[in-house]
Structures are given as C-alpha cells and as structure tokens.
Amino acid sequence: ICVVHKYICGFLNSFGGTLYFGIDDEGRVKGLTLCRKEMDKFMIELDESLRQFKPPVSAEQVSISIHEVAIDDAAKYVIIDRYVLQIDVFCANNRSVYLTPDRHMYVKRQATLSHLNIEEIVSFMSSRQNSIFSAEYLNHGINPLMLERMSATELRKMKENLDELSAHISALIK
Predict the structure, then answer these.
(1) Eight-class DSSP state of 56
(2) How far apart are CA 5 and CA 47, in angstroms?
(3) pLDDT for 133 beyond 80
(4) Whole-angstrom Cα distance, residue 12 to residue 4?
(5) Which residues fall within 8 angstroms of residue 104, CB to CB, at 6 or more apart?
(6) 103 in the Ramachandran plot: left (φ > 0), alpha (ψ -120 to 50) or beta?
(7) Residue 169 pLDDT more than 80?
(8) pTM score of the predicted model
(9) What is the pLDDT of residue 138?
C-alpha cells in the first residue's frame, strides 16, 4: 500500500495519471497473482488509507479496475487468479496539496516520482498559490499591486488562499 500511496500522492499533486500493476517496464503483461480475498483486502485497505491523506482523497478522485490476464488475444483462455490492477487518479483541482498518511509529499515529474523535502514543499505550495493567484487575479486583468482597487470579496478570497497556504506550511513544520 505504501508504494501505491506515493504514486497516488504524486499524481494528485501533479496532473493525475494511471498506475498499472502487473505490467513490466517494457509493457509486457505479467499479471499479479491474487485470489479474490486478497483483492478485496487490498481494495478495503486502499479505500481506508485514502481517507488518511491530508486532505482526504474522495472516491471520485481514484478509480480502481481489475483486469483478467489471458494467454491469447481473444481472451478465451484466462489465467486463473492472475490480474492487472489499474488505478486511475484524477486531479480535480490544482488548489490542494496532498500528503500521504505518513505525512510525506510526492510530485510526479515526467517519468519520475519525486519525494519533496520541507523546503521543496514550501516552494511547491508557494508556486501553486502564486499560480492560483495569477489565474484568479492576473488573468482577469487585475493588477495585484493595486490592491486598493480590489473589492472586499476579492480581498477576502485572496486572504483565504494565503491563510490556507500558511496553515499547510504550519502543519508541515510541526
């Protein structure tokens, strides 16, 4: 489960993606040997652990599919208890920063998964907040240097975003 956490966290903090277990690096289907009881246990443990992420991961953000492994292209001859596990991770918004249940943060960068240290997390969160700020304010023709021209609602929203960033950083430092 811990390896799965790392990749799910990395995809959530990036742009989403798909994990396949039972397919090797060259793309050959090998399959995982799992009985029904083991599959059910994995699904339950994964579901429970996703709720331990900070913030919790909703059921809509992760989809799990189990595919039978066959020895022929027509899928007439299925190998008993051999499966490919597919986990689709959907990144609903780019405002949240996700931490695994053991409070580690990962980001998916091209073909690698990066574990971030505290300085990198602060930088990542800052850039994420800046990109949100840019998208919400700069792209609407509002110059952030001219705060006095912003409405009270816009200023409150900006303060909420900054408070959220501050809370995330405080939680990570503890």
Answers:
(1) P
(2) 11
(3) no
(4) 12
(5) 6, 9, 115
(6) left
(7) no
(8) 0.69
(9) 40
